């Protein structure tokens, strides 16, 4: 029997390596999904076991989006996965089920039916029994479309329910923001009640007084910066409401920062809600609403300025902007 040269063996090894499936595991969980079976840990375990059962699969990396909705694809883990696809490091994406990929019917369909085939990327949905490499996948397009549509309807139903619950709580005077407005802190009773922040209350009052005196937003912001008063964003970082290191540098006041304070009825003791609207269940993306469409719940917390001062400041600015 003739011997094979070292060169041919090396070439064969190289080809074997290149022919292996370069797999990327993708896991996702939104804040609204509470099923234990959908937990990030369970998804990872299921998909790792699947990859381990395939001798020709090589796990490149695990791409994770924990706390991200599937209604859009602006997710850090997903973006990292797409970069790996573009760089040709991943040619197979493995997911627990199609809803992990996304719950937007149109965008998810574009990825699976257009983008991935163009990039020659294989999709495996373990629990759905879907593998785009199988010949049967061609006949499963209708099933895929139906599953995708169901996932889309599910997301819109969740959106409607969350919107209704949020609005009901806001009408009762509950503050539903991610961090308290500048000038306030969370109450010891819970995050949905506000108490006056003794460290920043006078800054808020001074802003309103300067506006009434005729100063513009830019003048007020410049004055605060010159005196070294930390901006709301920088102050929230100091208090631990913001944890990203980039927020540490957000120490400057801007005209828009001052304007948001002057426009917010929270400072006269009222709670505004419905400032923006995102009704996914009607196919709408988030939009900013005009003040006349805001909802107002009266006397929900201790005011920092009187109603007279609040409306006087608004009137002064209105006249200047005419």
UniProtKB/TrEMBL annotation:
Resolvase/invertase-type recombinase catalytic domain spans which residues?
A: 22-173
Renumbered to this chain, the Basic and acidic residues biased-composition regions fall at 9-20
Pfam families membership: Recombinase (PF07508), Resolvase (PF00239)
Domain named Recombinase is located at: 181-322
Region annotation Disordered: residue ranges? 1-22
Gene3D superfamilies from the UniProt entry: Putative Large Serine Recombinase, Chain B, Domain 2, Resolvase, N-terminal catalytic domain
Protein name as it appears in the record: Site-specific DNA recombinase
Recorded hits in SMART domains, A to Z, give: Resolvase (SM00857)
Annotated InterPro entries: DNA_bind_recomb_sf, DNA_bind_recombinase_dom, Resolv_N, Resolvase-like_N_sf, SSR_resolvase
């Amino acid at each position: 029997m003739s011997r094979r040269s070292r060169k041919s063996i090396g070439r064969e090894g190289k080809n074997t390596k290149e022919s292996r499936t370069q797999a990327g595991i993708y896991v996702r969980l939104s804040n609204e999904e509470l099923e234990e079976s959908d937990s990030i840990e369970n998804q990872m375990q299921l998909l790792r076991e699947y990859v381990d059962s395939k001798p020709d699969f090589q796990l490149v990396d695990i791409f994770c989006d924990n706390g991200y909705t599937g209604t859009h694809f602006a997710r850090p883990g997903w973006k990292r996965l797409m970069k790996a696809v573009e760089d040709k490091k991943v040619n197979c994406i493995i997911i627990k089920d199609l809803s992990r990929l996304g719950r937007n019917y149109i965008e998810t369909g574009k990825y699976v039916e257009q983008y991935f085939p163009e990039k020659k990327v294989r999709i495996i949905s373990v629990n759905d029994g879907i593998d785009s490499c199988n010949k049967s996948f061609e006949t499963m397009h209708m099933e895929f479309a139906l599953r995708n549509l169901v996932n889309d309807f599910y997301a819109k139903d969740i959106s409607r329910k969350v919107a209704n619950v949020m609005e009901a709580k806001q009408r009762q005077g509950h503050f539903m923001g991610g961090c308290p407005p500048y000038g306030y802190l969370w109450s010891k009773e819970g995050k949905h009640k506000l108490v006056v922040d003794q460290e920043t209350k006078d800054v808020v009052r001074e802003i309103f007084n300067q506006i009434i005196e005729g100063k513009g937003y830019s003048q007020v912001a410049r004055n605060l910066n010159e005196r070294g008063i930390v901006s709301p964003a920088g102050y929230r970082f100091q208090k631990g409401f913001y944890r990203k290191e980039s927020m540490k540098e957000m120490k400057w006041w801007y005209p828009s920062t001052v304007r948001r304070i002057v426009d917010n009825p929270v400072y006269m003791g009222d709670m505004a809600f419905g400032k923006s609207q995102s009704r996914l269940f009607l196919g709408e993306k988030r939009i900013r609403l005009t003040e006349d469409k805001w909802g107002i719940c009266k006397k929900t917390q201790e005011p920092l300025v009187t109603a007279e001062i609040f409306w006087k400041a608004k009137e002064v600015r209105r006249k200047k902007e005419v």
